[in-house]
Write a structure and sequence with these properties.
There is one protein chain. This protein is α+β, with helices and mostly antiparallel strands and 57 residues long. It has one domain. The strands form 2 sheets. It has a two-stranded antiparallel ribbon with strand order 1-4. Strands 2-3 form a two-stranded antiparallel sheet. The chain is elongated and about 35 Å long. It starts with 6 loop residues before the first helix and ends with a strand.
Length: 57
């Protein structure tokens, strides 16, 4: 069974950045987006024995 750790946290982070959009680049870092790699049939494996299925930029 795969553990989907941190995905809810990354989705929450994306929602927070969406609310902060007017001040991005001034008071907070610029959020470029998030991607669910499963939707494009891409899954990456890290050196920490974890599958990466969601990324935030």
């Amino acid at each position: 069974e795969r553990q989907m750790a941190f995905i809810p946290d990354l989705e929450h982070e994306a929602a927070v950045y969406k609310r902060l959009q007017p001040i991005q680049g001034v008071n907070v870092p610029i959020f470029l987006g998030a991607i669910n790699l499963r939707l494009i049939n891409k899954i990456y494996y890290s050196n920490h024995r974890m599958y990466i299925v969601h990324m935030t930029f």
